[in-house]
Amino acid sequence: MLKETDTKIKNAIFKARTDENGKILSYRIFPAEGYKLHEITLDEADVETGEVNLGFTESYITAGAGYDFEKNEREIYVTEVETDERSN
């Protein structure tokens, strides 16, 4: 079962997946409207230059209930969608 819960990242919507006893198992993290979400596994390296192209989604990602949002090793954050991206 999913229920909206307090956000741990500004401009993000957190939905907690719980077990039958209400214990939080994981989170689905969505960007708020007008924002996109970054997570390090969405990044892609350019083979020719070695440059890293940051990857974003306007959908959602998941994180376990024990994920350390202070340490944030997966580099989960939200940023605004650029005006030219909205017209695509």
Topology of helices and strands:
Blueprint: E1 2-5, E2 12-18, E3 24-31, E4 35-38, E5 44-45, E6 52-53, E7 56-57, E8 61-64, E9 77-80, H1 83-86
Antiparallel strand pairs: 1-2, 2-3, 3-8, 4-7, 4-9, 5-6
Describe this structure in words.
By secondary structure, the protein is mainly beta. The protein has one helix and nine strands, in the order E-E-E-E-E-E-E-E-E-H. It has one helix at residues 83-86, and strands at residues 2-5, 12-18, 24-31, 35-38, 44-45, 52-53, 56-57, 61-64, 77-80.
| Radius of gyration computed on alpha carbons | 15 Å
String of helices and strands: EEEEEEEEEH
Largest sheet entry: 4 strands, antiparallel
The class by helix and strand makeup works out as: mainly beta
What do the pLDDT scores average to? 92
Strand order of the main beta sheet, please?
A: 1-2-3-8
Strand content: 35-45%
- Termini separation: 34 Å
Total number of beta strands = 9
Query: Low-confidence runs (pLDDT<50, min 5 residues)?
Result: none
Q: What general form does the structure show? A: globular
The helix count comes to: 1
Bin the helical content.
under 10%
